[in-house]
Amino acid sequence: MIAEEYKKMLGQKSVIREIAEYGSERAKDIGYENVFDYSLGNPSVPVPQEFTTKLVELATSSEPGAIHGYSPSLGIESVREKVAQSLSRRFDMNYKKEHIFMASGAAGALAHALRAVTTKGDEVVTFAPFFPEYTPYVNKSGAILRVVPAKTDDFQINFAEFEKMVTPKVMAVLINTPNNPSGVVYSTETIKKLASFLQEKEREFGHEIFLISDEPYREIVFENVDAPFVAKYYPNTITCYSFSKSLSLAGERIGYIAVNPECKEAELIINMCGQISRGIGHNCPPSIIQLAVAEVIDMTADLSVYETNMTILYNELTNLGFTCAKPGGTFYMFPKALEEDAVAFCKRALKYDLLLVPADSFGCPGYFRMAYCIPTEKVKRSLVAFRKLAKDYQLECKS
Amino acid sequence: MIAEEYKKMLGQKSVIREIAEYGSERAKDIGYENVFDYSLGNPSVPVPQEFTTKLVELATSSEPGAIHGYSPSLGIESVREKVAQSLSRRFDMNYKKEHIFMASGAAGALAHALRAVTTKGDEVVTFAPFFPEYTPYVNKSGAILRVVPAKTDDFQINFAEFEKMVTPKVMAVLINTPNNPSGVVYSTETIKKLASFLQEKEREFGHEIFLISDEPYREIVFENVDAPFVAKYYPNTITCYSFSKSLSLAGERIGYIAVNPECKEAELIINMCGQISRGIGHNCPPSIIQLAVAEVIDMTADLSVYETNMTILYNELTNLGFTCAKPGGTFYMFPKALEEDAVAFCKRALKYDLLLVPADSFGCPGYFRMAYCIPTEKVKRSLVAFRKLAKDYQLECKS
Questions:
Q1: Residue B111 backbone phi and psi in degrees, to 5
Q2: What ipTM goes with this model?
Q3: What residue segments make up the domains of chain B, in order of their start?
Q4: What share of chain A is helix, strand, coil (3-state, %, to 5)?
Q5: B211 three-class SS
Q6: Contact pairs from chain A to chain B, CB under 8 Å
Q7: Where do runs of H (alpha helix) occur along chain A?
Q8: Among partner residues A68, A70, A281, which is closest to B282 by beta-carbon distance?
Q9: Does B207 touch chain A (CB under 8 A)?
Q10: Nearest residue, CB atoms, A286 vs list B133, B253, B269
Q11: What's the CA dihedral at B56, B58, B63, B67 to 10 degrees?
């Protein structure tokens, strides 16, 4: 009488959770400042002061009904308008508010997008390494997730494998660039090749293949990195965005869907999102957060620390002999473990109070993820631990 | 390639929306203050000043990461603890934080509760008149909604009809007291009878039947009305609560699930809610709103205006010859239309700038809903319009 499918999910021990639990216990002994916690992707930089100022202005305004009342099911019109204008201005596109649906973060956006363009049994293709939550997002929408193996030299798209998997059952392709967990940004070349391949397949199959582009890390791109705006290259693009990382608002559940105005079904899809909401208990993202975000729509938190941390870690780890694609953005990097079994590797790292996440659940065994959204001074202090860990393996090789 | 089920939902013309659209157009001509809009259940009283003060304190605190960061998937622990303590204190119960899941309003709570205790094809029984959104909430969870016809003399439970419908396929019963749209509160006698009947059926069928109690109007109960706390009477109760109405925060999407500690599966159900979230794009209710609500957990907005409005309208309408069960709470009342076709009746009411909602979609044709969450002075000004409308029908009878 209890839904077994969810009960079963509870039984699956999460490696990430085990590591986090170990970290909490260890912190009690040696202090949290001495646990080098690279496990969680929680933004570490403060929200911009301007956001706080606007939030306070709204909270203390004379019309609390308007501030805290229901928003329309597609989002507050003025907010949708500001999102559309910002996207159009920044990426030279033609978004209007009719192309925007306000969502509860990228998770909410993906839940809506997947339900809009797939029905039961349809296939959705994504690329390893991928955010493990894609599995429940896709499966619980009724579709089936197919995963293209990773191209581990640069973590761009493995087209040879991809092409084999695109059958007429595929209704959507789900990408995440800049990527969690690899930190890699798909190049213009990759996106162009992907777009032209998908358009060819659309013609061949006689139906649309939607490109669902999950972009919570869009604003965290490092210097001189080629980071194309995906929708520019493919009409049937549904962009899923979150302000979680760009404004350090992960807990406030605010993001949006933007459907490329070039997509014939754009307005229909947006309106359908309002209907999809009715079944999943989403009414709207919090009203006051919608309004506050719209006031700082072109701002970001000071994200520079992420590139600083990346540079320190990338240099040190490659020096120590780790293989690692250089991140172009995000606050993740994705080195190869020093032994085949990344779970064993990450367990050994705990000896030096390094909390690393094995990438098996990201569809890429043998690698591990580091979330370096932690203070730079802590990153620096952690280097000794990495040296000790690497030395362990060198000694082992010699013996 | 577009999900037809949601596309179709778009095609269904909503009577409420038509009425609201008429109202907006009419407001342009005669001013919104002259349109007597009883169509929408948007709380009209301001949030308590204490809530605003706490919200501002949180927003300007020195730890923005802790305020705006991800909350755990079951909700912030300290918030769950405060909810549990408040419920236990107020209703003499034994809730602990392990029995509480923080949800995005009552809609989010219901979406989770339904998925936790039903699987595809199970039946959920509710009672007319009922909130129309129950249909997508239940159907999109995979279960099937069955509706017990209304007991129109007092809008308590129609047990004769209910008993016929409780087959072994029924895994949950969904009630809403105080009720939208009738305004009626289920009496202790009703709840006791319901509880004892369900316990008898649980024994007969050999499986639990969960009582999902949707309680967004719990704090809006009028003087001397018998308003029992449902869970007190039935162990397998899942209470779905929202702060939308009690604190006038409808847009901020904050509420909770509380599973009766007497329910054997209580903690399991709460933990499952964390898994259910993964498929529907809910991560948590907004962090800062969770924290702010917890600080004013035992407060409500000044809700007295709703009883004032109810009394004025109830007296006038019954004087004019309307049949109406006296509301015991909420900000709704539910009179019988003056002709059989409530849609035609509500259309005629528009002539006098009265926006009323025919109750066909609430499963109770021939009645109409009035949401009197509007200023009292406007309620008073609307009485002339009701008199004119009633007179229309009197003249018709005579002719």
A1: -60, -40
A2: 0.94
A3: 4-47+302-398, 49-295
A4: 50, 15, 40
A5: strand
A6: 222
A7: 4-11, 15-30, 49-59, 64-68, 77-91, 105-117, 134-139, 159-165, 188-205, 266-280, 287-295, 304-319, 342-349, 376-398
A8: A281
A9: yes
A10: B253
A11: -120
Residues, chain B, total?
399
Write down the CATH superfamily of domain B4-47+302-398. Aspartate Aminotransferase, domain 1 (3.90.1150.10)
pLDDT tens for each residue of A347-384:
999 999 999 999 999 999 999 999 999 999 999 999 99
Best to test chain A binding among B58, B263, B275 (most A CBs inside 10 Å): B275
* The two structure tokens encoding residue B138: 């239940």
**From B7, B115, B279, residue closest to A137, measured CB to CB:** B279
Cα(A42)–Cα(A97) distance, integer angstroms? 30
Tell me if A248 and B208 make a contact (CB, 8 A cut-off). no
Assigned token pair, A302: 């000071």
* CA nearest to B168 within chain A: A1
Closest CA of chain B from A233, distance in Å? 21
Asked if the Cβ–Cβ distance from A104 to B283 is below 8 Å, we say yes
Residue B372 pLDDT exceeds 70: yes
Output Rg (C-alpha) for chain A, integer angstroms.
22
> What is the phi/psi pair of residue A389, to 5°?
-65, -45
pLDDT band per the 50, 70, 90 thresholds, residue B15 = confident
Cross-chain residue pair B3–A52, CB shorter than 8 Å: no
Place B395 in a pLDDT band, splitting at 50, 70 and 90. Answer: confident
Q: Greatest CA span in chain B, whole angstroms?
A: 74
Look at A69 and B43 and tell me if their CB atoms are within 8 Å. yes
> How many CB atoms sit inside 10 A of residue A207's CB?
13
Q: Which residue has the higher pLDDT, A181 or A40?
A: A181
Question: What's the mean per-residue pLDDT of chain B?
Answer: 94
State whether residue B335 sits within 8 Å of chain A by CB.
no
Instruction: Give which of A46, A15, A27, A247 is closest to B65, Cα–Cα.
Output: A46
pLDDT digits (tens, 9 = 90+) for B66-122: 899 988 889 999 999 999 999 999 999 999 999 999 999 999 999 999 999 999 999
User: Quick one: B143 exposed, middle or buried, by C-beta within 10 A (0-12, 13-18, 19+)?
Assistant: buried
In chain B, the residue whose alpha carbon lies closest to the alpha carbon of A168 is B1
Give the CATH fold of the A49-295 domain.
Answer: Aspartate Aminotransferase; domain 2 (3.40.640)
Report the residue from A46, A207, A271 with minimal CB separation from B1. A207
- Look at A68 and B47 and tell me if their CB atoms are within 8 Å: yes
User: 3-state class of B39 per DSSP?
Assistant: coil
Confidence band, pLDDT 50/70/90 cuts, at residue A1: low
How far is CA A294 from its chain centroid?
A: 21
> Tell me, what's the pLDDT at B388?
97
* Distance (Å) from the alpha carbon of A384 to chain B's nearest alpha carbon: 27
Number of continuous H segments (helices) and E segments (strands) in chain B: 14, 12
- Tell me if A136 and B253 make a contact (CB, 8 A cut-off): no
